[in-house]
Amino acid sequence: MTNAVRTNLVQPDGRHVYLYGDFDPAPVGYQAPAMPNGAYQRRWNPLRREWVLVAASRQARTFLPERAECPLCPSHAGHSSEIPAARFEAAVFENRFPAMVPWPPAGGSCEVVVYSGEHEGSFATLPADRLERLAAVWTDRYRDLSSRRGIKYVFIFENRGEQVGVTLHHPHGQIYAYPFIPPVVATELRQKAAGCLQCQLVRDELTKRHRVLINEGGIVAYVPEYARWPYEVHVATRTHRPALPDLPPAGRLALLAAMQRITRAYDRLFEVPMPYMMAMHQAPVDGGAAAHLHVEFYPVLRDRGKLKYLAGSESGAGVFINDTLAEESADRLRDLLE
Q1: Does the active-site annotation cover 281?
Q2: Torsion angle of alpha carbons 46, 48, 50, 56, nearest 10°?
Q3: CA 334 to chain CA centroid, nearest Å
Q4: Which of the chain's ends, N or C, has fewer CB atoms near its CB within 10 Å?
Q5: What does pLDDT average to over the chain?
Q6: Confidence at residue 104, expressed as pLDDT on a 0 to 100 scale
Q7: CA distance 160 to 278
């Protein structure tokens, strides 16, 4: 199994860069991009009882640059990217345009996880060795960020596709380390059922079977009966595991392999790269034994060339309307699994 061999670097503006695996040093003349000035605040919404993050410098963030100007590619003569290396296998850096900063009053951290030095491709196309390394990277970042003072929850996620607001095409994801437990996670943790509700959901899906897509290597993937998004898929550990570090390396790789099979099926569904949001739910920093590690995929295409929009009912009332049957979506995706 790939170990998370990490090299720590610090940019002149104080932002950290973590290079995982082998790399070549930055080319001569490398000039690190600097973080712009801006206001970072947390503001409380008393009606919804939730935090809103204010990040006034993000309006200036890099927006769909040309291939030659990609800030996530390795640096080369004449182009200084966010990565101070001429070659790398995987990299993580503190976002230059974050939603939160580590100092008050925002008090959190935002990292960009670059899956590969290769510009083309996606999570779905990562070869086995890069997938294994990514599992180690995610686990290392979860451990590191969870150990920091003031951090309450570490959220690993990926936005893919311009339709969900992606501004960089290079294969990457993000990690937010919140100084509070976000509301979706807080709701999941307020379980009133006896025992772990996620464990019960997995058992129910395995019993009914007709919505299950994958049941291998201790990992179960299924279209939930209550799916809000057309072709929504949840991927969970079969036994109760609160977070990535609670899985052995083989279990982490099995989780990512199942996730990759789902994303490949998505790309086959309408014969286009599927835009989606991926959300990994894990244990909060304190008292997280009740949490059950699982990943939720929200693909935003409901049909060929048709987007699922979060309109009035979804955005204004919080009530989703799904145009598909979970059972039919599962049948269709199952036929597309490799």
Answers
A1: no
A2: -80
A3: 23
A4: C
A5: 96
A6: 87
A7: 8
Q: Which two tokens stand for residue 88?
A: 């790398």
* pLDDT (tens digit per residue) in 246-276: 999 999 999 999 999 999 999 999 999 999 9
CA atoms in the 13 A half-sphere facing the CB of 135: 27
Please report the DSSP string for 181-208 in residue order.
--HHHHHHH---SSS-HHHHHHHHHHHH
Residue 83 DSSP code: B
Q: Is the pTM of this model over 0.70?
A: yes
Report the C-alpha dihedral over residues 320, 323, 329, 332, rounded to 10 degrees: -150
Averaged pLDDT for residues 111-139: 98
Give the whole-angstrom CA distance, residue 118 versus residue 72.
Answer: 9
Q: Which two tokens stand for residue 118?
A: 């290769």
Bridge partners, residue 154, by sequence: 177
Could you list the beta-strand ranges (E) of the chain: 6-10, 16-25, 40-45, 50-55, 85-94, 109-114, 153-160, 172-178, 212-216, 219-222, 233-237, 276-281, 294-299, 301-303, 306-307
- What is the rounded distance in angstroms from the CA atom of residue 175 to the CA atom of residue 154? 7
The CA distance from 95 to 86, in Å, is 19
Per the residue annotation, which of 169, 170, 172, 292 is the catalytic one? 172
Q: Mean pLDDT across the stretch 160-166?
A: 96
C-alpha distances in Å from residue 316, one per residue of 74, 88, 114, 259, 284? 42, 44, 34, 31, 28
